[in-house]
Amino acid sequence: MFQQTCIAPVNIAVIKYWGKRDEELILPINDSLSMTLSTDQMCAKTTASASSNFKENVMWLNGEKVAFDENPRSARCLKEIKRIASAKGQPKFPLNLKLHICSENNFPTAAGLASSAAGYACLVYTLACLYGVEDEELTQIARQGSGSACRSLDGGFVHWKKGDNPNGSDSLAHQVISPSSWSNMRVLILVVNDSKKKTSSTKGMRLCVETSELINHRAEKIVPQRIENITKAIKTKNFTDFAEITMKDSNQFHAIALDTFPPCIYMNDVSHSIAEFVHRYNELAGETKVAYTFDAGPNACLYLEEENVAGVVAGLKLAFPNDNAGNVEYVKGIPINGQSYEAY
Ligand code: DP6
């Protein structure tokens, strides 16, 4: 039996990916940019085994059997890895051996906490290690599992360029700065609700591309400038500019989600109260100390620097005591990731 285990981190976008121009190859309509989180507290862990005793490819996700060959995304990732392994010649074992794959997230799955990003990044990297092709350009393959997954294959801040080629060969993710360049950057995850989201990102963005009159304006006229400006803010560690762009982009993403018909509503009242808290906190502090961003769910991710964690957490605990149902359940201070993925 041949076996490989890997872990991969979550990434949280500050410029959101929302909308595809090619559903099959998962090619986005706009660039996006994210920070990769440390694997200590939030990560996916995957073990893949190949054996001549296995009759079919089987996958378990958090202990539950899920489709593998029947899922076009996982099937495509495996096909691509095998294609590279075969092109390189002398594969480590016969490519027709069937696989058993176990994957687990140590955080709520499909609750808008980037579980598919960590999950597919981990699957692709584990398969790449298993088949001995880990030195290849894997972001292209991870992207075909779940778009945001391509950003979890690198640490620090990562930019996924939408690319122009119809075959997706230039739709790749690359590191903007290494984690050590902004080592005091932290993320607080505020779990407002850990149940599975009503409208998946995939479905929500498809509907948004089909029905929103604002989405193309965002993709063409707003995002390119934002990417340029936030890259500059990140490279110069200008937290004020970074925070403003991050919050504006989160707000705009939710505005276009709302412009979908029927609307996609991801934030709830608690989410809006958290956004209000952040603006008030910054106002009272007289400077920008913290920024929020919300993905396709009600949970909040707050970006801030290490020296402000204690003050912000104290304020949050006062404003959102954990003993009330529907309020924020827990807060975690997660550092920027020093390493993008690990293989055992
Ligand atoms: C709101 O990568 O989960 O988190 O490509 O269809 O799998 P698919 O979508 P997915 O979408 C993530 C959307 C987002 C924003 C982001 O991470 O950039």
Could you explain the architecture of this structure?
- By secondary structure, the protein is of the alpha+beta class.
- 35% of the residues lie in helices and 23% in strands.
- It has 8 helices and 16 strands.
- Strand 3 and strand 4 form a beta hairpin.
- Helix 1 packs parallel to helix 2 and helix 5 runs antiparallel to helix 6.
- The chain is globular.
- The relative contact order is 0.18.
- It binds ligand DP6.
- The site of ligand DP6 has 15 residues, from helix 2 and helix 4.
- Ligand DP6 binds next to helix 2 and helix 4.
What is the gist of this entry?
By secondary structure, the protein is α+β, with helices and mostly antiparallel strands.
Overview features:
single chain; 344 residues; alpha+beta; six-stranded mixed beta sheet; four-stranded antiparallel beta sheet; 8 helices; 16 strands; binds ligand DP6
Topology, number of strands: 16
Compute the CA-based radius of gyration. Answer: 20 Å
The end-to-end span amounts to 16 Å
The number of helices is: 8
What is the succession of H and E elements?
EEEEEEEEHEHHEEEHHHHEEHEE
Q: Strands across the major sheet, in which order?
A: 8-7-9-6-1-16
Bound molecules: ligand DP6
| Gross morphology | globular
Low-pLDDT segments, ≥5 res: 323-330, 337-341
Largest sheet: 6 strands, mixed
Structural class per helix/strand content? alpha+beta
Average the pLDDT over all residues and give the rounded result: 90
Proportion of helical residues:
25-40%
Percent of residues in beta strands?
15-25%
